Amino acid sequence: MDESSYRDLAERLAAYGLSIVAEGAHLRVANPLSATLAEEISGHGGRYVTAWGYELGELGDEIGTAGRLAFLLGASRGAAA
C-alpha cells in the first residue's frame, strides 16, 4: 500500500471518529467506545484486507473502504462527509 493511500484511508476513517495507529505496513483501527471493536488493515494485491482476510475494497477507493470498515466497527456515519 503506498503511503498516500494509507494516509487518505486513515483520514477518512478518522472522520468517522475511529482511532487509527500506523503499525509498520498495517493500520490498526478501533472504535474508541469499545476495545473489542478493532481491526488491522493492510494492502495486498491492490486491495485493502483485514487481518482475517476480509477484503474491504480496492486501493483508490478509500471512500468506500472507509465506509465499509466504519460499518463493521459500529462507527457513526454522522461524522463523515
Key traits:
81 residues, 2 helices, 5 strands, 28% helix
Task: Walk me through what this model shows.
With 81 residues, the protein is α+β, with helices and mostly antiparallel strands. The chain has one domain. Helix content is 28%, strand content 31%. It has 2 helices and 5 strands, in the order αβββββα. The protein has helices at residues 3-14, 62-72, and strands spanning 19-23, 26-30, 38-44, 47-50, 55-58. The protein has a 5-stranded antiparallel β-sheet with strand order 1-2-3-4-5, covered by helices on one side. Strand 1 (19-23) and strand 2 form a beta hairpin. The radius of gyration is 11 Å and the shape is globular. It starts with a helix and ends in a 9-residue tail after the last helix. The mean pLDDT is 90.
Structure summarized in a few sentences:
The protein has 81 residues and is an alpha+beta fold. The protein has one domain (3-74).
| Number of helical stretches of at least 4 residues | 2
Distance between the termini: 24 Å
Mean pLDDT: 90
Number of domains: 1
Principal-axes shape call: globular
Task: Briefly note the structural class of the backbone.
Answer: alpha+beta
Q: Roughly how much helix do the residues carry, as a percent range?
A: 25-40%
Spans of 5+ residues with little confidence (pLDDT < 50)?
A: none
